[in-house]
Amino acid sequence: MAHAQLHLSQNAEADELLSDDPLALLVGMVLDQQVPLEWAFSAPLVLLQRLGRPLDAAELAAMDPDELVAIFSEKPAMHRYPGSMAKRVHELCRTLVDDYGGRAERVWDRPESGAELLARLRALPGFGEQKAKIFVALLAKQLGVRPPGWEEVSAPFGEPDSHRSVADIVDEASLAKVRAFKQDMKAKAKAKAASAR
Prior knowledge:
By secondary structure, this protein is mainly α. The protein has a single domain, classed as Endonuclease III, domain 1, CATH 1.10.340. It is built from ten helices and no strands.
């Protein structure tokens, strides 16, 4: 995997971990829902600190899910929904062990096409269609993973110079643009729902 410095959490230590550890990046992506994205992408570092050792998919998969829930639920909680998210991370790690020998980076290792990469991501617990598309765009835009057809399968998130998702966050300014885009989309959805009543 090309080594790039990610800036998703806006916390230097957490971003360093996301850049160095593919498992941390996948965990952050799973947690990126219904919480501010800085919180989601800082959580892998918090998990590492609470465990007291590097993240390891096999070790996390072998843990009692309730033990992981307890770690997620310690104050301050690692997510707004620490119980369900801890279980999802546990399932993710079990899938990585079963399908990829516990190596997160193998999920995006040499896919023959964008469609294959998208299918691999869709098969992971916690990755719906949209999240899988965003992650394809992130891999392509920031980590140099660009199998043929990645643009089509990640649309519209793979568009150049767009600020739609975490795939486009490279610094504070781009984070602000992504946040503004999301708020605009929410406002439009609200207005549409109101007019439909």
